[in-house]
Design a protein that fits this description.
This protein has 5 helices and 12 strands. With 247 residues, it is of the alpha/beta class. Helix 3 links the parallel strand 3 and strand 4.
Length: 247
Amino acid sequence: MRVFAIADLHLSSVTPKPMTVFGPGWAGHPEAVWAQWREVVAPGDLVLLPGDLSWAMRLPDALVDLRLLSDLPGTKVLLRGNHDYWWPTASRLRAALPPDQLAVVNDAVRVGNVVVCGSRGWMTPGHEPLGAEDTRLLAREGERLALSVEAARKLRRPGDHLILMLHYPPASPPYPANPITEVIAQARPDMVLYGHLHGVPPERAMSHVGGIPAYLVAADGLRFRPRLVLDTGAGHGTAAGVAAPGD
């Protein structure tokens, strides 16, 4: 099974919002996503989508966008981004998702021999400290990530790969430790995937967290081509389980 990743699809089927207002790098969106996805992803593959999936404000409108993803090959794992205002409770979301889509919500999923955990994340301290409210929200996201990592631990079997997804970057220059990086250091995933940053070439972005490989997979930085991040060489992309922290 091969694992691909692409974040920040920013779909807007119901109320169109052309992304070219954010710059010429978005020309051809989203058709370029569909074309390149079909070029590289096969039905047995896994595609990880760390946030900012749809501009919709309500779940029914977002489902129009998510059904477009169902027309594409592969099993998809979704994570909430800062613009996914339509994202409901975990139970309501999972009841509505197409059968080829899974969601990580304070828990983890296992697909073949890959376990995926994560959280949205938040702004992190860097050259400038965070204010009180942002510090509080970052701490909460650290707690949610810890719950997800614990759920992943329960799902993981010997030989499984562990991938940790965030929407926000895990740290900010000059990259001091924060509640997110502390959880990552304890979890020791095979890799960290994140999005959110636009106009940043992936090769110039944060490339590791304490020695753990980290990849920026925002769609525009990838030029809308899902990035191959792992080839497990075993199994097929079938949904194999979901574990909540209390299970």
